[in-house]
Amino acid sequence: MQNVIVTATHYWLGRSALDDIKCAVMDQASLINLAELLNQDGDLERSFRYIRFTWQCNSFFNTRMRASQIQSVLNVIEKNYQDASNRNKLLLLISTIGGTLFALLSLVLFVCVKRQKRKLSKAHTELEKDKLLEQRVLRHFPS
Known about the structure:
Helices cover about 90% and strands about 0% of the residues. By secondary structure, the chain is an all-alpha fold. Helix 2 packs antiparallel against helix 3 (about 45-60), helix 2 runs parallel beside helix 4 (about 65-140) and helix 3 packs antiparallel against helix 4 (about 65-140).
């Protein structure tokens, strides 16, 4: 039931925000509220985009009435956005290091297998030589 209420809230705030934008209403309280709700839900990309748009409109039209409200929401959303960005950068760094270590390990294993194969080939060649020598000896000295 609560999920339905949240979805309806998002829907009506979105409709109101779209109407505000279409009608060039610069008092975009619904978009601010929608950005705040999306931030709480974890949708950082859209909340950041919406609050940035609101901030740009506020700066362009110099609407002082909403500036403090926008600024407080913007700070929270920006902090969450930066935290998520830093987490993603850390995951990328860890993945890059892991991939590099995997590539190096694969290269080392490839070199080891190549050496073992070379040794095995050399031993096989020696065995073939010994086998030929044994056959020659047996031909000259039959039992």
